[in-house]
Every structure is written in C-alpha cells, then in structure tokens.
Amino acid sequence: MPYSSFASMPCTLSRPAALLGERWTLLLLRQIFLGTRRFEDFQATMDISRSVLTDRLNVLLQENVLKRVPYHEDGRTRHEYRLTEKGRDLYPVLMALRTWGEKWMAPDEEESFHLHHRDCGGGVRAKVECTECAAELTARDVQVAKQ
Amino acid sequence: MPYSSFASMPCTLSRPAALLGERWTLLLLRQIFLGTRRFEDFQATMDISRSVLTDRLNVLLQENVLKRVPYHEDGRTRHEYRLTEKGRDLYPVLMALRTWGEKWMAPDEEESFHLHHRDCGGGVRAKVECTECAAELTARDVQVAKQ
DNA sequence: TAGCTGAGTTCGAAAATCGAACGCAAGGGA
DNA sequence: TCCCTTGCGTTCGATTTTCGAACTCAGCTA
To answer: Which of chain B's residues have a Cβ under 8 Å away from the Cβ of A130?
Structure first.
C-alpha cells in the first residue's frame, strides 16, 4: 500500500490530503492564489526545479484544479495556468493554513502580505461550523462515526 | 533557495504550507485526528516506512504539534504521540480539506466515516469569514495587500 | 533461559528531486 | 534569409528521499 493508494481510498479526507500532501503542491497553490500564472514566474519565484514544476502542474491539470488558458503577448499565443472553480474552492484550505500560521508561526516582524475583506476592510479567518446550528466547532465538539 | 527555505520565510502561509506539505505529514495528521497514537499503529494502518515515520513524528514533535505522553501497559512504561493545543488547532485545516473532498472528490460509494456535532447532530464544514462583519468570504471577496 | 513486543535504527536498492544543458516554435531585427 | 530572444518545456547525470527488510534493545512472560 504505497503513498498513492491514499489518493484512491474511499475517504473524502485522505484523497485531498494525498493530492495536496505531495511536496511543492501546497506552495504552488499559494503562489497561484497570490496571482502567479506562468511557468517562468513559478520557476523564478519558487526556485523549484523545472521538471518537478512540470509534473505538479500536470497533476493539478489532470485533477481539474487548474486549467490552461491561452493569452496573447507580442502577437504570439501562449498559455497560462489558472484556477478552475474546483481550484478556487481550495481557498478555505489555504486560509485555514494561514489562520493557523498567524496564531502559531507568526514571525517576529511584519507579515509579507495582509488580507482584508473588500467590502468592509475586516480581517480574514478560517473556521469550522455546524451545518445545522452554525456553532463554531473544535475537534472536541465533533463525533466520528465509522462507516 | 531549496524547499526548506519556505519554512523560514516571514510568511504566515508559506511556513505552514512547507511544514504540512512534506510527503506523509497530512496523512499522518489525519490518522492522529482519527485517534491513532502509537508508532506501531501508525505503521500498520498507513503502511509508511518506519524510518520516514520516525522522521515525520520527530519533526512534528520539534514543531510542538505533537507531544510524547507516557502510558502504562502490562506494567511497562511506553509513550504515545498526542496533539498539543497547537496541534489541535490544525483541525480547521483538516476540515477544510475534507469539506473540499466531499464536494469535489466524493467517491461513488459511502464515506469511510461521518462527522457530526455532538450537541445537535448537524454536519461539519469549514468556511472563511470576515472578522468584522462575519460575512462568508471567497477568494474574490478578499484583497491582498503586499507588505 | 528463551521468546515476545513495542519502538525504533540501519542499510542497500529504488524512486524523487536537483541543476544545468538542450530542444523547439514563433516572432523581431539586420 | 539568418541569427537572436522568449517562453515553456524535456533530458540527463548527480544527489536526496523513500522503501522494505533485517537488526537492535529493553523489559516482561513462559
């Protein structure tokens, strides 16, 4: 049972965890949410090796998290990588990571970037809530039922 | 600038992403949230190689996500791995992964486990909200400010 | 005394990653 | 026309990680 078998287990947690748990994939998604879209820009800003970058982009294309979109520059047609709706839906995952990072791994100095709600200027945080009563939940409030 | 340099960048997203983005780490945390605590049990249920398991547990101990707690069995003292408060605070990350998995990677058959709020029996989901106006936010509602 | 168990450690083989060079197609300039 | 540049990969040999099986070790147990 190798690592990749978690990607095909009938578990809605192990499948995303196996996909995003590959080295570089979370950092790549971070870069995408920060606005990077082109191969050269990923390579330059992350200093990832080109072959691994190719591989990770292809995996995310295959999983339909990203799509290749043509664009024009200097009269030439090229392609850039953009989030699909499925990809955009990963936003809460990244925000949960960031919320945790702010609480537990905040560097001494200033942040490298701030996020705020366009409409009201407020801050941004991830949370877990009950779909019925809308209470905020921690691990202790949740019961696991096998099968 | 190797992979590990993201773990020390002054960015509250890249640091957690680099830590949890190592192979096996997310799957290991999933197993821990499901209740596994002992070396042998991790090894048996995940079929991870023993040396990598040792390494990942040590990294999480060092980051203070896990702690080693002594327990007694058959009159012998052993240790088990348990979440610290910092570790328990990763719950929203795992729930965000699961919420995404339920929407986009749900297997045809039944889930391997269900989660529900102890108090009211409702479902569980992760979301992103504004700290001021409490509106639910998507990537489009959020503005990134450099520095 | 010998065997068992939990929790690792060790080590040679296999796989993943790295970095530097190479390939290639489509302009642009001389 | 020929050469140069750019963006986006591919290839390849060297280095790192991971794998899997065997080994270690301490403290019971038979």
So the answer is: 117, 119-120, 122-124
Give contacts of B 20-59 with A, CB under 8 A.
20-27, 29-30, 33-35, 46-47
Q: Average pLDDT, stretch B85-91? A: 98
B18 touches chain A (CB under 8 A): yes
The answer to whether the C-beta of A121 is closer than 7 A to strand D is: no
Q: How far apart are CA A142 and CA B119, in angstroms?
A: 9
Is pLDDT at B109 greater than 70 in this prediction? no
> Does pTM surpass 0.90?
yes
Q: Tell me which H or E stretch contains B38.
A: none
Determine if strand C comes within 7 Å of the CB of A76. Answer: yes
Is the pLDDT at B138 greater than 70? The verdict is yes
Residues 6+ positions from B128 with CB-CB distance below 8 Å: A91, A92, A95, A124, A125, A126, A127, B136, B137, B138, B142
DSSP secondary structure of A71-107: EEETTEEEEEEEE-HHHHTTHHHHHHHHHHHHHHS--
